[in-house]
Write a structure and sequence with these properties.
- By secondary structure, the protein is an alpha+beta fold.
- It has a single domain, classed as 2-Layer Sandwich (Gyrase A, domain 2).
- The protein is 19% helix and 37% strand.
- It contains three helices and ten strands; from the N terminus they run βββββαββαβββα.
- The strands form two sheets. A six-stranded antiparallel sheet has the order 1-2-7-10-9-8. A four-stranded antiparallel sheet has the order 4-5-3-6, with helices on one face.
- The protein is globular.
- The chain starts with 11 loop residues before the first strand and ends with a helix.
């Protein structure tokens, strides 16, 4: 079996006090269920969650969820290959994202630990604020990863 490659091949960029980098192949498991999964998860809707883990841990996450949610109405899917993750950190990270996102990302409104499915630069993404520093994770479909990388690079250059 060929080795999996991430859409951006581990791309990174540091400029103007910001650090942008791909976090390749993070484990991502989608859960659709009326009941919240019993593990930390990003809530994306009333019955939709995303569990994110370290690289190559998707099988462990799937097995654990299937065990603890047995007998419940739930859809549990490995979606690791469908998205990649771009981490944006440093002063100005929120302002960079705000250039292409209609959500209010101000620190009084969007708090660490929160996540939202939204549009960034005309691309569907999941934004997750992991730390108030700020540190953002942008989950983007693999097929749009290069477009979003290029958009972020261009938006950063026009500061």
């Amino acid at each position: 079996m060929p080795e999996r490659r991430s859409p951006l091949d581990g791309w990174s960029l540091e400029r103007a006090g910001l650090r942008l980098r791909e976090l390749p192949l993070l484990a991502q498991v989608s859960v659709r269920s009326p009941a919240a999964p019993p593990v930390p998860a990003l809530r994306l809707g009333p019955d939709e969650w995303l569990i994110v883990g370290e690289r190559a841990q998707e099988a462990d996450i799937l097995n654990r969820l299937r065990q603890v949610m047995a007998g419940q109405r739930a859809q549990i899917l490995d979606v690791t290959a469908s998205r990649t993750t771009i981490e944006i950190s440093g002063a100005g990270a929120t302002e960079l994202l705000s250039k292409g996102c209609g959500l209010d990302l101000h620190p009084r409104v969007f708090l660490p630990g929160q996540a939202a499915a939204t549009i960034l630069a005309r691309t569907g993404v999941i934004l997750h604020l992991t730390d108030a520093a700020p540190v953002w994770r942008v989950f983007v479909r693999a097929s749009y990863a290069r477009y979003l990388r290029d958009w972020l690079t261009t938006a950063l250059a026009h500061d």
